[in-house]
Amino acid sequence: MSLIVMKFGGSSVGSTERMQRVARRIADYKEAGHRVAVVVSAMGDTTDDLIDQSKLLNSNPPAREMDMLLTTGEQISVALLSMAIHQIGHTAISLTGWQAGIRTEAVHGKARITDIDPNRIFRAFEEGHAVIVAGFQGMSVDGEITTLGRGGSDTTAVALAAAVNADVCEIYTDVDGVYSTDPRIVKCARKLNEISYDEMLELANLGAAVLHPRAVEYAKQYNVRLVVRSSFTQNEGTSVKEETVMEQGVTVRGIAYDKNVARISILGVEDIPGVLAKVFGALASNEINVDIIVQSGVQDGKADFSFTVSLGDKDKAIAVVESIRGEVPFREVNSEEDLVKVSIVGAGMVSNPGVAAKMFDVISNLGISIKLVSTSEIRVSCVIAAEPVQDVVRALHTAYGLDTAEQAFVGGPQDRR
Amino acid sequence: MSLIVMKFGGSSVGSTERMQRVARRIADYKEAGHRVAVVVSAMGDTTDDLIDQSKLLNSNPPAREMDMLLTTGEQISVALLSMAIHQIGHTAISLTGWQAGIRTEAVHGKARITDIDPNRIFRAFEEGHAVIVAGFQGMSVDGEITTLGRGGSDTTAVALAAAVNADVCEIYTDVDGVYSTDPRIVKCARKLNEISYDEMLELANLGAAVLHPRAVEYAKQYNVRLVVRSSFTQNEGTSVKEETVMEQGVTVRGIAYDKNVARISILGVEDIPGVLAKVFGALASNEINVDIIVQSGVQDGKADFSFTVSLGDKDKAIAVVESIRGEVPFREVNSEEDLVKVSIVGAGMVSNPGVAAKMFDVISNLGISIKLVSTSEIRVSCVIAAEPVQDVVRALHTAYGLDTAEQAFVGGPQDRR
C-alpha cells in the first residue's frame, strides 16, 4: 500500500465523461489499498471563461479580485470530482487550497507556496477518504486567497506530494509522457521512458508544456518521484527522477522550442562597474524574468548587450531600461519579436564534444542565421527567426538520431513509390 | 454619514449591465460619504446550473460537496462586482463568507449563522473600501464551508447589518417593495410604505417571496431597520421596522397565498397523554417543519388531527408517522395536495372583531370549502383547494378595502362603456 498523489489538468476533467473516468482511476487505486490525494485544475475552458467575464466589467481587474474569481474554477472541479467518486461507491472529500493547509506568499496572481500543513489531509486519510485538493491556489498569512500562477496545479501536486511524503506524484495530461520533441510537428518524436530532473527542467523551461518548471524544481529539491502519463490510456508514461540510465548512443535527449521570446539589445552602454547588476537588478525588481544574456566585447569603453524576455514582458522591460538611463548611460535600446528559441537537451552532451557545433551546423545548413546562443552543461539554445521552426526541429531531431524506427520506415525506400 | 448594508439578489446581478448598475448604486453611496457593505447572491441561474452539473455526476450528491460547489456562485459574484466598482474609480474588496467572519453551525445545506466577527470588515472600511460579501455561505468551527439554505443571502445581510451595527439594511429585489398582495394576480395591489416586523414575518412565512422569514426574524431580534426596494428604480420601497403608523381604517395590511402546502391527517389516534408531543417531536427531529395543526374533539377515546407541511416534506412526514405507529396507535393516515393557504395579515385585526368572519364569508360566497383554519394575533389563514386562488385573493383584497384608487377608476363607470 502506497500513498499516491495524482494531478489532473483541466482537459482531463473537461467533461462529465472525463470526470467519471478520472473518478474510476482514483477508485481503482483505493480498491488496490492505496491512500490517494488528488490535485485538480479547473475544468476545460472555465478559467478562460471567467477571465472573459471579468474583462466585460473591468479592463484591468485588480489581481486580488482575479484570484478571488479564478479560484472558483478549481473549487467547482474538486466538488464535482468528489461527487463522481461518491457515485461509484467510494468516499472522498474536496478541499480548497486553504482548507488543504496550502500557505503562500502574500502575492496575487503568482504566489509561491511557503509551506503546507498536511494535518487536515492526514485526518481525511484516516477517515478513509480520497482527498481532492483544488490546485493552483492557496492562502496567505493574512487570510487572503491567492493563486500560484501558470502551471500552479503541477506545483500544488508536487508540493503536496512532498508534504505528505508520497511514494509517487503522477501528473496526468493529454499526452503519453515526455517526448524527444513536440509530436505535433515531428511525427517520429519518441516517448522517453525516463528523464532526469535537470533534463526535464531544461525541457520544461524551454516550453515543452507537459510539466511546469517550478514543479520540476520543487520535485528535484524534495526528491519527489514524478511520473508524467496520459489520463486517457493506461500507458506507462515517463518517469522523472534523480538518476537515469543513458540509452545507447543518445547524447541529446530532447529538442524543445519556445516562441514566447523577445530580444532586447542595449547598445553603447558606458562600461562602468556594476552596469549589468544595475540593469538586471532593475528588471528583477520589476518581476521581469530575463532568460539569455549575451554581452559582446567592450569597445572604446562602450559595451553592447542583449537579453531575451517573454513577449508579455517586452514593453515593460524596455520601459525599465529607459527609466535607469540616468544611472546607466547608453546610446540606444532596441528589440525584436517573431523569434523562436530552439534548444537541445541531454545530460549526455557534457561528455560529448561537438554536440553544439553540430547544432549550429544543422541550423546554418538550413540558411538560417543564429541571433543569440546560450549554453548550459546539458543544454544548447539558439534564438533564430520564428519560421521555419518545424524544419529546424525536424532536422535536429534527425541529426541527433532521435527519430523512431517507424520514421526510418516511413522515410525508407518503400515510401518513395 | 451612515453605515449601510445593501443586499442584491441573483437577478439584480444577472448580467453585465445589471452588475454595472449595482456598482453605480454602491459608488453613489460612497460618494455621499457612507460606509457600505454589500451582500450579493449568485448571478442569475448560476446556482441552478451548478446543481444541474452535479446531477450529471451524482444522483444524490453529498451535502458537504454541494456546499463546496454552490458557494462558488456567490464567490464569482462578489469578485466581479468588486471589479465593476474598481472600473468606475472606487475601491472595493470582495470577501467569501469565511473571510467576512461568518461562522455557522456545522450543518450542510441549511446551517444557521452562530456569530459574525466583523473585524476584517471594519479594517476594510478603514482602508476606504466598499466591502462585497458573498451571501448564503459561512464556515463552521472545524473549517468546513457551509451554506445557509434558501433565502440565505437575506439572512447574511441582516446578520451582517446587526454585527456592524448598520443604520439600515437595504434589500434590493426586482419589485418595488412589499405589496398588499401578489401584484401579478391582483392589478390593484398597493405598495406598503411601511410594515412591522411581525406583519412582514407573517407575510414572508406565507409565501410573499420578497423577504426570507429567517431574515425578518433576525431583523426583529436585533432591531435592524430593513428597507425592501427595487434595484431597477429609485423608488422609496417599503420600510420594515418595529413601530408602524396604522393607515386610516386599514385593519388588514396584506393578503398572501402559498401553494407549497400539503395536508396530512391522522385518524383514530389513541388519546393517550403526550400523543401530540410524540408525533410532532418525531417530525421535528426529522427536520420537518409543520405549519398549521388542527385537532378535532376526542370521541370514544380516539382523536383525529390534521397538519400541513411543505409539499417536499409530505412523503417523509407520512413515513415518520407510520414509523411511530408502535408508540402512537392510530387507525389511518391520509394526505392531500393541490391546496393553497390563503392568509390575511394585519396588526389592526386584533382590535377589530369580525375580521376573520368576513374572510370565511368571502370564501364561502365563492362556493369554496375551507379545509383548515389557523389564526394568530395578526393573521388568519385558510387552507382551500388550490383553484381558483386568484379569485379568492382578489375578492379578499377588495373586501378589506385594499384596492388602490387606480383600480376604483378602472372598475368605475367610465370603464363600462
What does this structure look like?
Two copies of one chain form a homodimer. Chain A is α/β, with parallel strands linked by helices and 417 residues long. In chain A, 34% of the residues lie in helices and 25% in strands. Chain A is built from twelve helices and 20 strands. Chain A has an eight-stranded mixed beta sheet, with helices on both faces. In chain A, helix 1 links the parallel strand 1 (3-8) and strand 2.
Strand content of chain A: 15-25%
Overall pLDDT level of chain A: 87
Structural class of chain A: alpha/beta
Number of helices of chain A: 12
Alpha-carbon distance between the two ends of chain A: 55 Å
Question: Gyration radius of chain A, to the nearest Å?
Answer: 23 Å
Strands of the widest sheet of chain A, in order across it, are 3-6-2-1-9-11-12-10
